[in-house]
């Protein structure tokens, strides 16, 4: 949620954002300011009437002359009636105002290009060498079946489409990836080096967390991740939602809390199962384990002072690149445009790894910087150096979506005989160098 004072002072920017993020049919900024203007005199009069009633209560208490006392009581009764009328008007207008405030998207960074959809995202850098095969590379579905490490046929009988059994070496590789991430994100030497490249003064380690995978709908709404609701699995009987990422329950961990300045940044690395309906996806993406209803994911979440929010995102993207580089996977970093970014996002980068069977890069990582948009809704604050209360700035980002990174590993490291080499960094953690 944006600050109303910010909206008043940056009206043209807010209006431009509404257009660029394609929210014009959902929120009317001029109407929002009309409601704000109508609420202001009501707020002033409400405070004035309440103050007068408090003063009258004191006078009534100490007035002994009956006639004067009755006059004060009558005046108090009149003010009470007026107060009720004002409160009704205020509640009615404020409900409309708050609803529109919640619909308003976050403004975007000057770094973010204006674009209509993902076709106007920009590749800003690439790393690694795209593998050249002397044979036609197999896709992960064929590799998984041949190596007996992925089974989508049995899972479709048990659970339906877009589920999978992960088996044998793939399971051990998954837990090797998890262990690698936890080791790197707790290594202050590595983090200091990456923080320095991003001009980030903090090298605090990430606290490992296994968070809940169910969340109250009203808290998901505060995170502004409830919609589109058709993407969520609802447990209506229990009034709960299954999370689509660990960030959904990591973000509200400090709801209604206030940090001391020296307690920041707070950084977490969460591991959880995630659930998404993947409504609307079709074609080849429905095969295998690329777009599934249930998958495991490692997610970073951080809370920082406002002045460090942007360099925190740069630091997190540096971590993402370092993790992918450790696996030796070719990738590109994408600057997301206004028409493809999320409603709460101020800036967003994606990392796309090369997928040989598709002969193109596919998204494996996202980094979202929300400024204080989420923390304002969640009421997460801190005292700045001058002891003023402010809202923290929040970042969340993928460390690894396991199923997608397994696809990239299997396809990029496949051999002509159908075997798959294990990335060198994972070999000591897996206990083997090759699958098959």
Q: Please bin the fraction of helical residues.
A: 40-55%
Relative strand content = 15-25%
| Rounded average pLDDT | 95
User: How would the global form be characterised?
Assistant: elongated
CATH superfamily of the largest domain: Bira Bifunctional Protein, Domain 2
Low-confidence stretches: none
Q: What would you say the CATH architecture of the largest domain is?
A: 2-Layer Sandwich
Structural class: alpha+beta
- The strands making up the biggest β-sheet line up spatially as 1-11-12-13-16-10-9-4
Determine and state the CATH class of the largest domain.
Answer: Alpha Beta
Short description:
The protein has 436 residues and is of the alpha+beta class. It has helices at 4-9, 11-20, 29-62, 66-103, 140-146, 153-158, 168-184, 188-197, 217-222, 247-250, 309-327, 373-378, 402-412, 427-430; strands at 122-127, 150-151, 165-166, 207-209, 214-215, 233-235, 240-242, 258-259, 266-275, 294-304, 331-335, 347-355, 360-369, 381-383, 389-391, 393-401, 420-421, 434-435.
What does this structure look like?
The chain is of the alpha+beta class and 436 residues long. It folds into two domains: 4-103, Helix Hairpins (Orthogonal Bundle); 118-435, Bira Bifunctional Protein, Domain 2 (BirA Bifunctional Protein, domain 2), CATH 3.30.930. It is built from 14 helices and 18 strands. The chain has helices spanning 4-9, 11-20, 29-62, 66-103, 140-146, 153-158, 168-184, 188-197, 217-222, 247-250, 309-327, 373-378, 402-412, 427-430; strands at residues 122-127, 150-151, 165-166, 207-209, 214-215, 233-235, 240-242, 258-259, 266-275, 294-304, 331-335, 347-355, 360-369, 381-383, 389-391, 393-401, 420-421, 434-435. The strands form five sheets. An eight-stranded mixed beta sheet has the order 1-11-12-13-16-10-9-4. A hairpin with a 4-residue loop joins strand 12 (347-355) and strand 13. Helix 3 (29-62) runs antiparallel to helix 4 (66-103) and helix 8 crosses helix 11. The chain starts with a helix and ends with a strand.
